[in-house]
Amino acid sequence: MGASQSAGTEHEFQDLADRTGFSLEQIGNINKRFRQLTNNEETLSREDLASIPALDNNPIRAQIINAFFDKRNLHQNETGTVQEIGFEEFLLVMTHFRPAAMGLTEEERENLRREKLRFLFNMHDTDSDGTITLEEYRWVVEELLSKAGIIGQETAKAIADAAMLEVAGTTRGKMEPDEFYEGITFENFLQILKTFDIETRMHVRFLNMDTATLRCGKSK
Amino acid sequence: MSVRVALHSPRGSRSFLERGLLLLVMLIFLEGTVLTLGAASSPDISAQDNTGGGDDQRGIEGRHGHANYTKKAFPVLSLDYRHIHVPFEISLWVLLASLMKLGFHLIPRLSSIVPESCLLIVVGLLVGGLIKLAGEEVPPVLDSNLFFLCLLPPIILDAGYFLPIRPFMENIGTILMFAVVGTLWNAFFVGGLLYAVCQIEGTYLSQVELLPCLLFGSIISAVDPVAVLAVFEEIHINELLHILVFGESLLNDAVTVVLYHLFEEYSDAGEVTPMDVVLGVICFLIVSLGGIAVGTIYGILAAFTSRFTSHTRVIEPLFVFVYSYMAYLSAEMFHLSGIMALIACGAVMRPYVEANISHKSHTTVKYFLKMWSSVSETLIFIFLGVATVAGPHAWNWTFVSVTVILCLVSRVIGVVGLTFIINKFRIVKLTTKDQFIVAYGGLRGAIAFSLGYLLDKDLFPMRTMFLTAIITEIFFTVFVQGMTIKPLVDLLAVKKKQEAKRSINEEIHTQFLDHLLTGIEDICGHYGHHHWKDKLNRFNKKYIKKCLIAGERYKEPQLIAFYHKMEFKQAIELVESGGGVKLPSAMPSQVSMQNIQPKKLPPAVAERALPQFTKGREEEIRKILRSNLQKTRQRLRSYNRHTLVADPFEDGWNDFILKKQRMIELEKKMSNYLTVPAAPPDSPTMCRARLASDPNAFYNIKASSDGVPTIQVDLASPQSPDSVNMLNEFSKRGATDQGLGQREGADRDEDQGLMMKPSSAGIEEKGEEGGGNKNPGLMRCLSDPGPSNEDEEDEPFLP
C-alpha cells in the first residue's frame, strides 16, 4: 500500500517536509516514535497502536485507531480501510493536527478548517457514505459515554436524538411531519460547528516533542 | 430598561428625561442633607455630641433637674439618633448607592456614553461637596478596614465563583506573565523614574527618597479588578481579552502585597539588601501559593459540607458565603493574598457545590452574589468621590503629571514587550489590537487608594502627596480611559463577545476532541497538555467527586450533566414563558422526532408517551413542573420563617393562569430534549399511559364529554387585589380566549388541586394569539430582569 520506507534518509525527509509542512526535526522525532511503535519494522498495523497502554483509558480508542487506517484520511480519493500503513501515511494523518500558522489568509484558514473538520467527519461517518446517520451519531455518543456505566447507555440515545434534532432544526428549519432527514452531510457539519474554532483547538504541540519525552508505547 | 423609555414617544421621553434628571438631583440633595445630619452627629466629631439626640432629653432633664428626684412627665416620644446612628448611616449610604444605580438607568443616553463608574464618582464628589458645604467634616468613609474587609470581598467572590475556568486555565501562562512580570516591571519603572525626576533640581521634591518612591510605584502599578470589572462589563469584548485583563487584575494582588510590605518594612531602614530581595521572592511564593492553598482548603470544606445539606436546603447558600469569607479572613490573618484565596475557594467549590445544592439555592447564591457585588462596587466608587473631597491634598504639578504619564508609558511598554515574548509560546497569538486593548484596559482603582491610605503618616511625610497623585491617576484611568475605551473598541473593530449559546453538538464535539487529542498525544508518546488534563479529570472522577458529591450524581459524566441541564432549562422555559411562536431559540422545534427517526413501525403509543430518561431525572423534572404549577393550600395559614413553601399566589393571579395555559401547550410541544411526542392529546390511550407512569399525577384527566376546554382552579384563598383585576381583564378580553374565559366557574374542590383538561388543537392557536397580544403587565410579572444570563451558569462542572 504505502511506499516502502528505508531508514529515513535526509533526502526523503526533506521531501516529506516539503509536502507536509513539518520541520525536519519534527519529522525526525515522529519517525523515531514510529520506529518505536512498529518495533523497527516498516509498517504499522492496528495491533501496534492497540498495544499502547495509555490508550486503554480512552473511550474513543477504537475510532482513533481506525482513523489512521482510513483511506479517506490518507489523501486518497478512495474509501475503505487498509491493514497497514507506512511512515508516510502516519505522517499524513498527523498533519491534521498541526496548529494554524500565523498570518494565514482567510482562504487558507477556511481550507484548514475544512481539512480538520473533514477528519472529524470521517471519524463519525463509519460507512463512508458521506452522511452521518442517526445510528452512526448514536454510536458516537455511546462510545463517548462508554466509560460511564449504565447511566451512560440509557441517556446516550436521548442525547444523540437531541443533537440530531438540533442539527436538523438548524440546517433544515421547519420540516413537514412526513419529511425525513437522512443524516448530517459535510456541509451541515460545517454549519453546526461554525462557532467552534477548530483551527486553534485541534492541534498537538509538536513543537515540544523531543526524544526525551518519548516513552516506549509497548506494554511489557 | 432603555427599551421601556424608547417605547414612549419622543416628546414623552424628553419629559421623562427631565423628570429623571430632576429626580436624580433631588435624590442627591436629599441624601446629602440626611448624610450631613448623620455626619454631624457621628462620634468622630468630638466637638458636637449633643446636637441631634440630646436636646429633648436635656430639655426634660433641665426642667426637673434640681437636686431631688421629682417625677417627670413620661416621655411619650423622644428622639435618640445616637442609638442607631451607625447602622442608620450605613443603610443610608447603601440606599444612596442603590438609588443612584436606579437613577442612571432611567437616563439611557447618559449611561451609554459615560460608564457607570464615572457617574458614581461624580455623585460621590457631589455628596462630599454637600457635606463640606454644610460645614461638617466629611467622614472618612474609605477607611481601609471597611474597604478590605467589607467592600472588596463580595466583588472578588462574585468574580471567583463565576470565573470561566476553561479560558482562564488555557491562558494561565499569559495571565501570570502579565500579572507577575508586568506588575514588577511597572512598579520599578514608575518608582525608579519618579525618584530620578524627584532628584532633579527645581522640583522641591528632593526629600523624597528611593524606597518611598518604589513603594509608591508598587501601589500604583497594580491593575484594579473592581475598575476593570466595572468598565469591561459594559464594552462586551471577546472572552480572551476579558479574561486576560481580568485575570491579570486578580492575580497581581500577591505581587502588590509582597512589594508593599517589603518596601514599607524597609523604608525607615533606608535600604534593601540582596538578602531582602531573596526573602521577598520567597515571600511572594508563600503569599501566592499559601493564599491559593487556604482558599482550596476552605473550598473543599464547603463542598464537603454541601454534601449533607439535602435536608436543610434553606441554609445552603449560607455555607457558600461563610466559607468563602472565612477563607478571605484567614488569608488576611497571615498576610497572605486574600484575593487569591477567595478566587481559589470559589473556583474549587463551585463544581461540587452546584452538583449538590438545590436549584433554588443555586439561584439564591447567584442573586446574592450579584447583588452584594453590585452594591459594593457602587459604594466603592461613591466613596472614592467622597474621599477625594475629604482630602487632605497636597498638589504638586510635577509629581502628579509625571506619575500619570509614566504609568501610561510603562504599561504600554510592558504589554508590548511581554507580548513579544509570550507570542513565541502561544498558539493563538495576540495581535496589535489585542495588545492595545490590554494596555489601555489597565485601570487603577480603589485598592491603590486604600493601600495609600494605610501608609503611616510619620514614616511617610509625603503621604498626602502620594494620595493626591493616586487619586489623580485613578480619576484619569477611570474617566479618560474608561470613557474612551468603548468608542475605541468599536473603532478598532475588536472582536466582541459572541453570544453563542451552548449547543449539545458543540458539547459532544468538545468532549470528542478532548479525547481525540489525548489519544493522539498518547500515540505520539508525548506527555502533553491534554494528557495531563485527562489524568486530572480521571483522578477527579475517581476520588474527589466521590467524596464531595452527594448521592449517585458523582458518577455522572460531564456530557450527561450538560444534557440534563439543558433539559431542565427547557422544561422550565416551557412552563414559565414558552408557548406558541415565542419559543426561545434554544428550541427550534419545528423539527420533531418523526423527522429524524428512520421510517419504521411507530412503537406502541404507550411506550412513546414515556419520556426517555431515567426515573430519577423524570421525578426531578416533574417536581419542578409541579412546584411551578401546583397550588398549595398551606398559604397564609402557617407562615413559617424556616420553611420554604411553594407559593404560586405570590406572583399574583396573572402568571398563575398563564402557567396553566402553558402547561396545556406543553402537552403538544415537542422539544429536542423532552421527547414527549405530540400525539393527539385526547387519545385516551395517551392519557392513561401518562397517568399510569406518574403516580403523583397532578392533573386529573377525565374524559370530557363537552368540547369546551375548562380549567378548574381552587379558589381557596382569594386574596390579592390583583386577582380581581385579572379576572376582569380576562373577562374583558372575553370570547377569544376560550380556555381562559371559563375560569369563573370554579368550585371549591378540596381534593383536587387543579383540574385541567387538555384541550383540542383549537386552543393552541388561541393561546398563541392570546400570548401575542398579552398584557405588558403580565410580562413584567413573568420577566425576570435579574443578573444577566451569562453563560457562566452553563459551564459544565469541570472543563
Task: Walk me through the structure.
- The complex is a heterodimer of chains A (220) and B (799).
- Chain A is mainly α and 220 residues long.
- Chain A has 2 domains: 10-99 and 203-219, Recoverin, domain 1 (Orthogonal Bundle), CATH 1.10.238.10; 105-201, Orthogonal Bundle (Recoverin, domain 1).
- Helices cover 51% and strands 4% of the residues of chain A.
- A two-stranded antiparallel ribbon of chain A has the order 1-2.
- Helix content of chain B is 65%, strand content 1%.
- Chain B has a two-stranded antiparallel sheet with strand order 1-2.
- The chains are: A mainly alpha (220), B mainly alpha (799).
- Oligomer kind: heterodimer
The separation of the N and C termini of chain B measures 35 Å
Q: Hey, roughly how much beta strand do the residues of chain A contain?
A: under 5%
**Biggest sheet descriptor of chain B:** 2 strands, antiparallel
**Global shape of chain A:** globular
Indicate how many domains the architecture of chain A comprises. Answer: 2
Shape of chain B: globular
Ranges of chain A where pLDDT stays below 50 over 5 or more residues in a row are: 1-7, 207-220
Question: How many separate helices of chain A?
Answer: 10
Which second-level CATH architecture of the largest domain in chain A applies?
Orthogonal Bundle
Spans of at least 5 consecutive residues with low confidence of chain B? 1-14, 41-65, 580-589, 600-611, 631-641, 643-652, 675-687, 689-799
Q: For the record, what is the CATH homologous superfamily label of the largest domain in chain A?
A: EF-hand
Q: Order of strands side by side in the largest beta sheet of chain A? A: 1-2
